[in-house]
Structure formats: structure tokens, C-alpha cells
Amino acid sequence: MSFGRARRDSPAAMREWSSHFRRGAWHRDSEGAMALKARLLREGGTIGVPAPSSPFENRSEIDRGRRWWEERGYRVKLGSGVYAQDDYFAGDPETRARDLNALFADPDVDVVQSLRGGYGASQVVPLLDYDTIAENPKPLVGFSDITALHVAIRQRTGLVTFYGPGLTGMGNPKREWTKERLLNALTSTEPLGEIPARPEDPYIGTLGSGRATAPLVGGCLWLLRETLATPWEFDLDGCILFFEDVHAPPWQVDGMLTQFQNAGKLEHVVGVVIGELYESDPTKDQNPWLRSRSMEDVFEHHLEPSACRWCSTCRSGTARTSGRSRSGSPQPWTPTGAP
After folding, report:
1. pLDDT at 320 (0 to 100)
2. Would you kindly state where each structural domain of the chain is located, as residue ranges?
3. In this structure, are residues 242 and 274 in contact, taking their beta carbons and an 8 Å threshold?
4. Distance CA 140, CA 38 (A)
5. Cβ–Cβ under 8 Å, residues 191 and 272
6. By C-alpha distance, which of 214, 41, 26 is closest to 3?
7. What is residue 324's DSSP assignment?
């Protein structure tokens, strides 16, 4: 039984939803649809690690990430295929999906944290057991390529997931603020508070002004586009869209936002949060176009005329994942706030 948004309208569906998710806490989002929230990470809990996208680069990355959790009293359970390497995939899609399903089903696992991003999660999406995920709601943590999983799981189950670093990122000797913020998000129901500006560049730009309380939905921009015309196509109606990307010059971002507009995806967005567009400066392209709009021009063209109350930049990105987001969470956001 997969609980998509259209399956949760009738009283019978609501009663079934209520009884089905005894292990998680559910509530209505701003549209009246049900959002499922997993339990908090308990002290001494277990972090399950699948590799749904690309493989590790150095084994020490996995060891460092494991030690970070263990030093704080948690356990780490690696998926059976976490060391697999098949060019830019961490093994075949069947093994990657099997590990993800198994970790959701495992009663000893409290949080499912992807190994890393990269490429390949879209291959896994059709092979997931959404009934198992819905029956065992747990925080899913990952970013970049894991956007495909965030979107599909939200659309099929209503589960609130977390856009944050993978296990290899936990082993990064830097980014302590990022890692501690993730831990706080997994262990507390309190709002995470304002996302501070980067010390090296405190500028935060906005288009419009206002406040909105709505589900936060998004991820890596091109991965969002990849869900269009699939059974798990992302839904932004009544939501706050957030996105980031890497190696995406203005003409590519323009094309993706144009496709979103043509598909009607921006018509009912209530706010937009833009993370870092890493290494996307058109002047540094090896074969730059003779002329290019700036990234700000692109945002103004597509987002300023929309119905959203405001648009702002925040501290999050594929190469510098600093802001933790509860994807699909009906938490209040302000232009510089966090759920």
C-alpha cells in the first residue's frame, strides 16, 4: 500500500493512515495532506548507511564518518553493498535498493543516512519498497543526488526527510557546524533557528518580503527536473521550494526553471529558498557564450513574477552543505530562518 497525496482525502483513508503509522507521528500540512514524521534519534541509537548513488573515493572516508558517530555514543550499521564500486555507481541498482529497503525494515536502525551523493539514486527509485518505508518511518538523510529519493519517498509515503550530509561528509574534519546542526535536527523537535550568513560572504539577497509556513520541498535543481513525467514527479503546490546545484551556469538554470514554469510547477509556490550554485560562474566556463544573463537576472525573471511571497538565498549547497533542511516538513521559514 503506497500512500500518495491523492490517496489521503477520504475519511476511510485517514483512518487507515492513522492505524498504519503507529510508529511515527503524523499531522496535516498546509494543504491538509498528511505528513509523516519519524521518531527522534535515541541516545545510543543506530545509523544505517546504504550507498544508493556513487561509491566512496577512499575507505578512510567511511571510517572517519563511522568514528564521528561512535565518538558521540551512536552505532553505525553499514549496508551490505556500501563498499561496492561499479564505475560511478556503488554497485548495481538492485543491490543499492535492497540495502535501502533492508535498513528501513531493520528494527535496530533509527536513522538511514546515505553514504554520499553523486549519481545513480534515480535508478533505485523504481525498486524501493514504499510499503516497508511507510511501515517503518525513519529519518532519511542525504543531499545532492539523494534528491531523487527525497522526492519519491515524500510523494509515495508522506515521510518527512532530511536534506543533509552523507556519512562521508560526517568524516570531513571541517564543517563541524553542519554536523552538529544535523545531530540537533535528528534529536530535537525544537526549531533549528536562524541560519547564519557565511563568515566569508555575509550577503543574503531577497526578492519580495513576507513570512510563510508551508512544507519545505526541493533539493538539487537538476534532480528535481529529472522527476518530471515520472510517477513520483515532485509537487510544489502550497510549498516552499528550495534548491541548489553545482556546475550549473545561468543558461542551464534558466532552462530548468523554464521547464518548471511550463509544467506549472511554480504557479502555487509560496516561497523560494536558493542555496549555493557552486562553481556556476559563467565567466569561468571553458567555452562561455558570448553573452550571458547573470544568475540574479535569471532568478528575477522566473521567480519575481510568481505568486511566492519571497525569494532568498541561504547557506546550503552540493559542495558546501551547511544548512540542514527538513524536506517536506511543515515548519515555518523566514528568508533567513530554518525549520
Report:
1. 37
2. 46-187, 206-333
3. yes
4. 9
5. no
6. 26
7. -
33/299: higher pLDDT: 299
Vertex 158: Cα angle to 156 and 162 (nearest 5): 110
Q: Taking the domain 206-333, which CATH number applies?
A: 3.50.30.60
Domains 46-187 and 206-333 share a fold: no
Question: Do β-strands 75-78 and 140-142 pair in parallel, antiparallel, or remain unpaired?
Answer: unpaired
Which residue's entry shows cell 575507505? 59
Average pLDDT over residues 45-58: 96
The confidence score (pLDDT) of residue 16 equals 45
Residue bearing cell 548495481: 92
Residue that the C-alpha cell 544548512 belongs to: 323
DSSP 231: T
Average pLDDT, the chain: 83
**Cell 523554464 belongs to residue:** 258
Mean pLDDT of 63-89: 96
Q: Which of the two residues, 314 and 328, has the higher pLDDT score?
A: 314
Per-residue pLDDT for 69 more than 70?
yes
- Give backbone dihedrals phi and psi of 68, rounded to 5 degrees, phi first: -60, -45
**What are φ and ψ of residue 54, in 5° steps?**
-90, 160
CATH class of 46-187: alpha beta
Average pLDDT over every residue of 293-321: 72
Cell for 58?
Answer: 577512499
